[in-house]
Each structure stands twice: as structure tokens, then as C-alpha cells.
Amino acid sequence: MERLDFLRITGALSGSLMVGGITNVFAGDTRTIKAIAFDGFAIFDPRPVFNLAEEFFPGRGVELSNLWKTKQFEYTWLHNITGTYINFYKVINNALTFAAKVLKIDLDDLKRQQLMLCYLNLKPWPDVAGALQTLKASGVRLVILSNFTDEMLKKGIDHGQLQGVFEHCLSTDKVKKFKPDPMAYQMAVDAFGLNKSEILFVAFAGWDAAGAKQFGYKTFWSNRLGLPAEELGAYPDATGKDLKDLLTYIG
Questions:
Q1: Quick check: is 39 catalytic?
Q2: Which of 39, 127, 208, 245 is catalytic?
């Protein structure tokens, strides 16, 4: 049975393909897709981290979380530019320190430790396990390609009971460059031994979708936050709200 026929049939049986809301679908043959590379946050749900921040600092947790998230990625880009790579877990910690200082929030060692440990206890988004099972059963090769450290990836897979789902778990620690550096995206090409055109990249952030597209991947933006596309001159081949929409797109 052809892969796409399998997805249509299993989707019809499970209802997972009966999801609308896909936008920005450009012309392109998804039948050429042999492998899918996922950003870490497209798989793992970070909301418990930010819920804990609000619990620790009522009325200020959202403010802290927003600045913390922004600085995490600003720091990865600055480390790329300056050639001073440190792993993403350290970046997250440094960004938290900065955000707390700017907002004059009293972040004691215990609260810091608990917030940081949340990143080692992330679980998949609710729709992820079923979608991955459908994709893997169809014969599509799967990989995580993420700024996450190896430890973050391993613990996330263990907590989500996703052992054996991914052929590779690729941390940017391997090349000492964060996305959107081309060296980071190249890891999936090398791991699979495929052409760029045969790999679909699934992004969580708009800038990551743009970076992957500029690199040469087909791209699907899992836009769970409902944000507009970044104005970077490169747009995803399709945008949906979750991995159920991903199944619709490639099916």
C-alpha cells in the first residue's frame, strides 16, 4: 500500500485527518517526502514551565515568561554570531537570570532550580503521540532536530513514552551551532542520507520555519500560538495549528 493511501485510510478511521485550518499551502508534491524532522517544541509542550512561573510569581509570571522566552532565542542567535556556543540548557538558565533582573523579580535558588527542572520534565503536546504513530506506521522516517541538549531530548522522550519512534535525535550540540544556522539544519540531511527536497521540517516558531525554508527544506509550521508569519522573505509551505493538521497536509 502506498504511504499516502495508508495515511488517508488510517486518518479516516481515527478521525485525525478531519481537521481544517491549514493555510499558506503552496504548490508542491508531498509524495516526495521520505522523512520528517521536528523541532523540539513542535513535540514537547513547554506550558508547564510558564504555568509554574505564574504560580511562583502571581500576576508577574506571564511577564517573566515572555521576556525569558524572548531572551532564550536572542541569546542563541548571539552565540551563533560571536562563535561562543554553550548548550541550550545553559542558555535557558542565563536568559532566566536576565529576565528576573530586568523585571526586579526575586528569584531564589530553589525557584530557579524548579523552573529549570521543568525543562527536563516536558511531555508531548496531546496530539503528538497519535500523529507520530500514524506517520511511523506509514513508513515515514522521523527525527528530532532541536536546540535541546541530548539530556533534554532523552528525558522528553522517556516522559512521553516515545522510545523507538525517532530514528535520530539530533541536538545542535553536535555541530555547536544553533538554528537557524545552516550547519544545524544540515544534520538531518546527513543523518538520513537524503536530499533536502525529500525532508519536511516541522517548526514550532515562525523564525525556525523561515530558517528551514531558506535552507531548502519543505516546511510545515505547527503554529500553536496563532502568530503571524515572520517577515523574513521565506514562508512555510503550509501552516496548521498542530500535528493533526500536519497529517492532513501530507495526506
A1: yes
A2: 39
